[in-house]
Design a protein that fits this description.
By secondary structure, the chain is an all-alpha fold. It has 6 helices and no strands.
């Protein structure tokens, strides 16, 4: 029962993240997914920042639910996901400043990482993202050790892809690269939740 509820919360968190993020981008003039960061949608000075805050916070909720989802498999992985979940909630609350709006915010020196809120935001964002990757990697290794090779390999590939894309964020299309690793990360979370729901349904028959 706990696993099923955790899986449903993961799916809800991921779904609300994408819905709120897309809605936030839509209501901010000039904002481009290819160019702009997700964090800008929650910044001070943008249109309807609550949408960006909800989006980021929902990733945190999904992380906390994922901790409950993998707890039986690996406590270390669960701890990593739980810490990441708390971290993303901090990211949502510690907002950067975008006085000229969300479009191009964070590009070309439009904001500097200074002040308590900005430093907290970016530190929590990086650390939380790394913790999710660690959690995925730990889960993948545990699955391989339990001879669940396909699931383990897929999880390790997802963790590696997320790490590579995270490290590559920047350049000419930082928004695109950021969304690649967010898509892989949230896709893995949703996939893990879906598998848990199928297994739960099978065990109840």
């Amino acid at each position: 029962m706990i696993e099923r509820r955790a899986a449903l919360l993961v799916l809800a968190g991921v779904s609300v993240f994408w819905a709120a993020m897309l809605a936030g981008a839509r209501v901010n003039p000039g904002y481009a997914h290819r160019r702009d960061y997700v964090s800008a949608l929650a910044a001070r000075g943008v249109e309807h920042p609550w949408l960006g805050m909800v989006a980021i916070a929902m990733i945190g909720c999904a992380g906390l639910a994922a901790a409950a989802l993998v707890r039986r498999l690996t406590r270390a992985g669960a701890l990593a996901f739980a810490a990441a979940g708390v971290g993303f909630v901090v990211v949502a609350l510690a907002r950067v400043d975008c006085p000229d709006g969300a479009a191009r915010c964070g590009l070309g020196g439009r904001f500097e990482v200074h002040g308590t809120a900005a430093i907290t935001h970016w530190t929590a964002a990086v650390v939380s993202s790394i913790l999710v990757i660690v959690g995925m990697a730990v889960v993948g290794i545990e699955l391989v050790q339990r001879r669940r090779m396909a699931a383990g390999a897929a999880t390790l590939v997802a963790a590696g892809t997320t790490l590579v894309a995270l490290l590559a964020t920047g350049g000419q299309s930082p928004g695109t690269v950021q969304r690649i690793w967010i898509l892989v990360m949230t896709g893995w979370l949703a996939g893990a939740a879906a598998v848990a729901l199928v297994r739960s349904a099978g065990s109840r028959r």
